[in-house]
Amino acid sequence: MPARRASAARHGRSDPITAGGFALVDTLQAVDVPLASAQRSAPDAPLIEIRGLRREYQSGDDTIAALKDVDLTIAAGEMVAIVGASGSGKSTLMNILGCLDRPTSGSYRIAGRETAQLGPDELAELRREHFGFIFQRYHLMSELTALGNVEIPAVYAGLPRAERQTRAARLLDRLGMADRVHHRPGQLSGGQQQRVSIARALMNGGEIVLADEPTGALDSRSGEEMLRILDELNAEGTTVIIVTHDASVAARAQRIIELRDGEIISDRRNATPARPSAAPRLGGAGTPSTPWRAAVGRFREAFRMASFAMRAHGLRTFLTMLGIVIGIAAVVCMVALGEGSRQKVLANISSLGTNTLEVFPGLNFGDTRSGRIRTLVVADADALAQQPYVAAVTPTVSTTRSLRYRSTEANGMVNGVGDRYFDVKGTKLLEGRLFDADSVKRIAQDVVIDETARDALFADDPGKSPIGEVILVGNVPSRIIGLVQKQQGGFGSSANPSVYLPYSTVQARFLGTTALRSITVRVADDTPTDLALAAVTQLLIQRHGTKDFFILNTDDIRKTITQTTEILAMLIASIAVISLVVGGIGVMNIMLVSVSERVNEIGVRMAVGARRSDILQQFLIEAVLVCLIGGVLGIALALGFGAVFAMLETPFTLIYSTASIIAAVVCSTLIGVIFGYLPAHNASLLDPVVALARD
Ligand code: ADP
Ligand code: MG
User: Fold this and answer.
1) Backbone φ/ψ region at 314: left (φ over 0), alpha (ψ -120 to 50), beta
2) Where are the alpha helices (DSSP H) in 410-476?
3) By C-alpha distance, which of 401, 395, 398, 494 is closest to 451?
4) pTM over 0.90
5) Most confident of 163-177, 302-316, 338-352, 481-495
6) ∠ Cα 219 170 12 (to 5°)
7) TM spans, by residue (predicted)?
8) 517 with 603, same domain?
9) Tell me: the pLDDT tens digits for 570-601?
10) Statement: residue 453 has pLDDT above 50
11) Which atom number of ligand 1 is nearest to the Cα of residue 55?
């Protein structure tokens, strides 16, 4: 690179004005490395070359030409002032020069490279590598310190963090801001803020500094200081282009270009002898880290900005988050509740016994006439017992009577059952014995009671064994021979005390009829239930001459109950999901507000070289953070609910699964991405000029 060596040599000879003992640009030279763009440029191409440039604005139905056929060439190292009346097109020209805006037609070459066909990210790269912007109103980010503001361009250029900070601190030091490095813009005067913005412009090398009315908002002393710094930079080789309407400012430039109504009406050299122009200093500053590490650096910046934004509007963030918290908590709780009831129901239906058919009189469940149908009799049960596909049969009858032991009385279910009943139902004997076929034949007054009945009748003496005691069932004295566990649920389950007597006893002593309430058939293990069902139906129709009974199949019941529970659980969960979607819409809404509030910041970031993806990333991270934190809080809330429910001993059981919790976290992240995408995408599509102009 002969051009570079020449530049260094000339720098050695020239006697740059110094600030604090060091030349600004010399300081930077230490870390100055040529970039690809420098090698791409044609050897003798002027730094800036504009031909036939036109910029039109659409205003309603009219087209306003802000620039009309502008031809302009600016060499490296020049200091140019662009002057003209308000509305003459100065800012428009400046924005096009800085690649913030594109011409409607015409050609713009930077160091020989045509910009017309470049995409938004390539223009961002040009801005990063070649330009530094100084705005009239500084455009610093209020959440960041002076140092943080200066660092930003290097973040997007991919400079390693340590190098970035050293360089930013050194720049601020040279600009006399060493003791203000950690101040925020709000704590700085206008002149100091403008110096921070100069440092920011120089961060990536500052080959071309573009200043739009840089002294416009400053008092005269700060303005003078500002111009001195620009002079100094120019002396060190930086190309400086200043837009101004102040003649005294323009007078300091070597070249003054005057615009009127979008046309250049004069382009003159100043009377003061121009300084020998320095050679072009193409390229940025510092060694960019590897692409991967640079991406991590940009992610960290985006993350930091997202958390700043969240903290800046704490209440708003919290309220938005609340939507997600409630949604996630609802989903997790509902899924847990669904799982809890499913397991409860499963436990219940397992107590229905294995593979049984239950024959009832009547046409179907709830047939009001079934009580009058008396055709289902013990002989049917005996006939069924003969069938090869039947493992066991028990007839049942039932009634309610009062139970009495000494002075203790309770109402109870009196079940008249066959000796195989406990076998068929799978009921467990806890104490004593069960009655046998002989008890049925004898119409024995032997009674088996369940735990509930024991608790009710022997409450006075809980430790005592009830076996051998005599109780009154209705007014029939019966001897307790066994204690069984209470029926766990399903059909015939009851919270009432239940006692079991031989069905013959119940028929003879209580009902005075031979009709049965039901016959329960346990199907042989090797017979499919539906075959047995068909066979039992056929047999009973044959015996009765008509179908005056119906058969419940526990398998079907099990399936129906399971299905119903699952449908219910899904229904509840889908309502919870709706609340989650509502939360997501809240996030989207607030993100749209957040983006519109920070349009200006987005513009500044784009001006210093942020890619569209950088902007997208920043807002997407914000949305995901809100949702993720909301999700974690939601899970905590759901677990809290579970603990409270457990303490209250409600009939609900909440069973949390790790899967549902992981799903909730994934879900909340997805909501952030899905509902944050639109606002973030909108932000990334903003036109930098439009964004910068917005207040
Ligand atoms: P200056 O900076 O010299 O005051 P500008 O470059 O801002 O002038 O504007 C030049 C002309 O273009 C003006 O007539 C202005 O009204 C018009 N103009 C600038 N920006 C827009 C825009 N975004 N939409 C429509 N017209 C615009
Ligand atoms: Mg202007």
Assistant:
1) alpha
2) 421-425, 437-442, 451-457
3) 494
4) no
5) 163-177
6) 95
7) 318-338, 567-592, 619-648, 654-678
8) no
9) 888 888 888 888 889 999 999 999 899 889 99
10) yes
11) 12
Same domain, 64 and 203: yes
Q: Does 105 reside within a domain?
A: yes
Q: Which atom of ligand 1 is nearest to the CA of 95?
A: 6
Residue with tokens 């239950």: 358
Residue 605 has which token pair? 């970031």
Which of 520, 547, 574 lies at the terminal end of a domain, its last residue? 547
Residue 297 maps to a domain: no
Out of 70, 86, 92, give the residue to mutate to test ligand 1, the one with the largest number of ligand atoms within 8 Å of its CB.
Answer: 92
Range of the domain at 689: 305-345+560-693
Bin 204: left if φ > 0, else alpha if -120 < ψ < 50, else beta: alpha
Contacts 24+ apart (CB under 8 A), 165-168: 167/28, 167/31, 167/203, 167/285, 167/286, 168/199, 168/203
What amino acid is encoded at 287 in this protein? Answer: T
Q: Largest Cα–Cα distance of the chain, in whole Å?
A: 137
Nearest CA to ligand 1 atom 6: 89
Phi, psi (deg, nearest 5) at residue 418: -85, 170
Segment 355-380 shows an average pLDDT of 79
Please tell me whether residues 488 and 391 are part of one structural domain.
yes
Predicted pLDDT at 60: 86
Is 386 in the same domain as 408? yes
Q: Per the structure block, which two tokens stand in for 477?
A: 């004295």
Tens of pLDDT, residue by residue over 608-642, are: 999 999 999 999 999 999 999 999 999 999 999 88
Q: How many domains does the chain have?
A: 3
Answer yes or no: is 291 within a domain: no
| pLDDT tens by residue, 519-556 | 988 888 888 888 889 999 999 999 988 888 888 887 77
- Rounded Cα distance, 177 and 147, in Å: 10
Asked whether 85 lines ligand 1 (CB < 6 A), one says no
Q: Which amino acid is present at 389? A: Y
Percent of the chain whose pLDDT exceeds 90: 45
